[in-house]
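User: Please predict the structure of the protein below. I'd like the answer in structure-token form so I can feed it into my own downstream comparison script.

Assistant: Understood. Taking the following sequence of 445 residues as input:
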Amino acid sequence: MSDKKVAVLGLGATGLSCVNFLLSQNYDVTVFDTRQLPPGEDKLNASVELIKGQLDAGLLAEFKLIIASPGIALATPALQFALQAGCEIIGDIELFARAQQQPEYAHAKLVTITGSNGKSTVTSLLGEMACEAGVKTAVGGNIGIPALDLLAPEIELYILELSSFQLETTFSLNADVATILNVSEDHLDRYESYQDYTQAKHRIYQQSRNCLFNRDDLLTLPKVVNKAQVSFGFDSSAYGLVCDAQNNICLARNGQALLSTASLKLSGKHNWMNALAALALGDAVNLDEQAMLQTLQSYTGLKHRCEFIAQRSGIRWINDSKATNIGAALAALQGLSETISGDVHVILGGDGKGADFSELSTVLEEIQGLILCFGADGQKIAAFNSRAVVVNDLQQAVAMIAAEGKTGDLAILSPACASLDMYPNFMARGDHFRNLVTALQAGGV
């Protein structure tokens, strides 16, 4: 970064963080954005030139260093032209990595987390564990705050969620531990193949001293050599599951029970794996064990993602409104009945966007409680299970479960559909569900 003339490609929160950091380091910054009204333009320093519209490959190639938004593929013709012209193209995470080598930041530990599913939960859970342990922690990256905005001399631990897009342009991370939680088909509109997508994820291991992988997902197995490796999974080895003397399923380390899964507010087997991953990562950076276990018992999850709302008359109520497609609902519901003593009651429905709801058939057969369907495609979903009932709205669904549920049961809103038939967005749907449950708690109707 000897040349002080830098291009930032793409504004928004991440682009602004790059601009502000570069200005603080006395770089001459020019911003390119294809949008006529790029978000964050009103916050842009007056000294920075903003060039809008179609990318001018020749003009872009005049900059030796280009900081590209993760939303812009490297295959973009203008970027390919710049690469061939000898330009270096990196992203905000690489800029963070280089900045963290500066003496005032280099003392801090770094954890990096990626995966097709669950990375936001593990990132935020680990962040809360670290805070409970009294460690000065900064959490961000692909979740919440852009990485460069986290930099501060007092920080002792950085925890970054990273997407495959961000990893494409990252080379210099020196993480204490990195993990790929799982890999499933995603973003194939960006990558030439599933293998290319997987390889992008694996860049995270190359830039870490320790690797944590999912032994139940071979696509997460590190291919790098001379790296310390540890794993998590459903069996009893390393970070896994065991049964205690009372036959309770417990989170365990090397076969030694640490915490009963019944103590978690997070629901579902996939969240048991998220909890194990967070424990392993926390151990890798020497977080206090009791602080981690205490956090696991209080952590309610991210809003609208298998989020614990309340327990009323022995029924656990879970808000998974962000399950806006069948795959997300399947992840939440598969094996859920095996994790509780009572029945699972599920609420599904909304705008299915033309999805094939037959994929839900098998998991709905596992559900022994109420199956309630509402919204534009509620009838279509109900057609795949003989016990399913179509209701008018969420209020009716919540009232039916409250009336028929019993101690030990779990009720979950996991729609498998978008919300736009009845709500502005999935957040509004989840908030309505939370308000209905809270009213039940308070004795409302």
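That's the full token string. Residues 97-298 form a domain with the UDP-N-acetylmuramoyl-L-alanine:D-glutamate ligase fold (CATH 3.40.1190.10).
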